[in-house]
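Quick note —
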Amino acid sequence: MIVWIFMSSISRFMLFESVVKKNCDLKGGWQRWQDQGWSYFWWQMGLSVLGIGIALVLFFPVILSVLHSVRSNQKPDFSVFLAVLPFFFLFAIFALVMLLVQVLTKDFVVPQMALERRGIFDSWSRLLSMMKDDVGGYAGYIGMKILLAMGAGIMFGIVSMMATVVVMIPVGIIGVVLFFVGKAVGLTFTLPVILFSIALGLIALAVLLYVIALVCVPLAVFFPAYALYFFADRYPPLNAVLYPAPPAPPIVPPLARSPQPIG
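Predicted structure written out below.
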């Protein structure tokens, strides 16, 4: 999980660069965004540790109530549920706040870190001042993003199901053919056959995950692009990158005046 968080931290800046430049440079991008990626990685790790710590504090009364019921040789009744219900509400509110912090960091803090080489805390301070001046705009953005996420979730499910069907039909045919061929030659479920079957299953799973990820690339690119074009109207450096000024027309030197006739 730590390795995954580190790779995602650098990849977030690579995705930002790919959306802005409309070109993906994996090798060069991985090398260019090491410093900003490390800062974002430590931010995510600190946020994760903070979240786990607060979650444990919120669930501590729940654990005590359950342990008390177990030690008393009693089944947890409805009163225990009512007693711990407020802590579940607090945890839900806390989870929403943490999710909001992660979304704002990805959408609006990462562009500042990328374009101006700012630190993450400095970028957050600037973002809070911008949000204070446009509370309605950012609130509308969050609401719209929730609606878009719901629609994207439905679309992702449909596309994933179609990709699964497309991949599993040939895989199933190959599996049936191999089964009857093995049965014809007298193969039994020995250890090598079982290991070979597991290897084929893992290969099929890898192909399925690759196809699902490939067909869902437009959805993965849409959300950061939507965030950048929203933020560009409020962040001049990003606006200058997304909407570069047209090149100045070439300067044509004035024609030399013809000499006046003599006399």
